[in-house]
Write the structure tokens for this entry.
Amino acid sequence: DSGVTQTPKHLITATGQRVTLRCSPRSGDLSVYWYQQSLDQGLQFLIQYYNGEERAKGNILERFSAQQFPDLHSELNLSSLELGDSALYFCASSVGHPYTGELFFGEGSRLTVL
Amino acid sequence: SQQGEEDPQALSIQEGENATMNCSYKTSINNLQWYRQNSGRGLVHLILIRSNEREKHSGRLRVTLDTSKKSSSLLITASRAADTASYFCATVLNTGNQFYFGTGTSLTVIP
């Protein structure tokens, strides 16, 4: 158990809808990272927050947004969903910033868009 | 893209054999890390090698890093069926915070 909690584990929705994925980092970790894992594209870095502030941005679509709250949990909002958004979405956490050590991953949220 | 690329994409070996997978990357790095992912699960950190290190061992794992060739290899010795998983390399830039993962090597160890 990494200590990183993601909910929901599975989510099925229709095109055009909006969903929110939630992540609670390990106790004491201030950074949260979001990744998307599609079947044939490996892990794509989306965005990173540290102590409530956005610190790094990757290949995140404009339809997607994220935030980190004062209690350090983070939410990834996906809107106007398309079939291609079906993927595993992972959250990872780390203690500091800048940070170069190991990441601790949650078990992921599997999103299926029909 | 700054992502690493693993090679081969898939590897199937008999239990007891060694498994070698490679990772190539494009930019200067602070360190390179290897992670393991069991099917549909989260990634688990295996080992980290810094840019000034050439080789590192952890149990049955041996990692090498050649910064001149921008490549790394992960060797799993005396493989077990339980080693069946996908293995990813992640490159970490000197600025920190950004971890770039490759597409992974899917390892199957046949009992």
Notes: The CA atoms of residues 73 and 84 of chain B lie 17 Å apart.
